[in-house]
Amino acid sequence: MESVRAVAGWPVDNAAAAVVAADGSVLASQGPMSRELTLASVTKLLTAYATLIAVEEGAVEWDQPAGPSGATVRHLIAHTSGLAFDEHKVVAAPGNRRLYSNPGFEVLADTVHEASGIPFAEYLTEAVLGPLGMTSSRLAGTAAAGAVSTCDDLVLFAAELQAPTLLSPATLAEATTVAFPGLAGVLPGFGYQKENDWGLGFELRDHKSPHWTGKNSSPRTFGHFGQSGTFLWVDPEARVSCVVLTDRTFGQWAVDAWPELADAVLAELA
Questions:
Q1: What is the chain's mean pLDDT, rounded?
Q2: 63-78: per-residue pLDDT in tens?
Q3: pTM to 2 decimals?
Q4: Segment 131-164, tens digit of pLDDT
Q5: Which end of the chain lies in a sparser environment, N or C, as judged by fewer CB atoms within 10 Å?
Q6: Are 184 and 196 in contact (CB under 8 A)?
C-alpha cells in the first residue's frame, strides 16, 4: 500500500505505521516497527481493555460507585465523572458533560487495583499484554498516559480489537457504542463538539468535525490518539485498522497529516 509510505515524509525523527486487516494480517508497514515509543493517551485503550476484562471477570461492575460522589466505573471510563482534565478536582456533576479526564482514568485503574488486589500495571500485563504477546509493552507511568510500546505490539492489539479473543464480542460492541449519548464537550486538539460521543474508553468518530480520522472514515470508527504523536483507529465498516507511533508531540502537523493518511488508506482499500 503506497499510502503508508507517506509517514516517511512527516516532520518527525521516527515514525512507524501499520495497516492491519480484520483477520490480523498486516497489509502494509513503514518505519521502525520494533522501536519503543511512548503512547501518551493511546494508553487509555489498553487501560480500558483491561477494565473490560475486569468487568467480565466480575472484579468490578459498571454501576458500582467510583470516583466523585455520584459517579460510577461507567462514568469514569466514559469521561463523564465530572473530574477535570488534568486535576483531581470535580468541576461538574456526573453524567452532565463529556469532560475528558486523565485523573478519571487514574481513578479507574485504582478501582480495578482495589477490586482485584493486583497493582494495575501487573493486572494490565496479566490480562492484556501477556496473552496477546505484547512483550515490548509496559505501563511505565499513569494508566491515563504512561504506556510504552512498539508498532509491532500495537498491531497485535489492533487485531484483537477487530476479532476479540480476550473479551466476548458483545462486550467490545458495547464498549464501542455511545455511552451517555448527547453530551457536548471538547475533543482535545480538535475543539468543541456538540455531540462529543465516547464509548467505554474508546473515542468514537460518529459525525465529529473536525476529527483526527479521515473525512471518509465511517461513523463507526473508534480508537484514540496521544499527545506523543500516536494513534490507533479501527474502522469496522472498512474492516481495517491503522496504527501510527511517532516521536513528535501532537500539533498542526498531525491535524493535517493524520486525516489525509486515513483517507488514503481507505481509498486504496476501496
A1: 98
A2: 999 999 999 999 999 9
A3: 0.98
A4: 999 999 999 999 999 999 999 999 999 999 999 9
A5: C
A6: yes
CA 241 to chain centroid: 12
- Domain 2-269 fold: Beta-lactamase (3.40.710)
Give Cα separations from 140 to 124, 129, 229, 247 (angstroms): 12, 13, 18, 17
Give the H/E segment covering residue 241: strand 240-246
CA 152/CA 189 separation, integer angstroms: 26
Direct distance between the N- and C-terminal alpha carbons of the chain, in angstroms, rounded to an integer: 12
Look at residue 16 and give its three-state secondary structure: strand
Report the alpha-carbon angle 232-2-17, nearest 5. 25
Can you read off the three cell numbers belonging to residue 221?
470508527
Task: Scan for cell 477487530, then name that residue.
Answer: 162
- Number of helices and strands in the chain (H, E): 8, 11
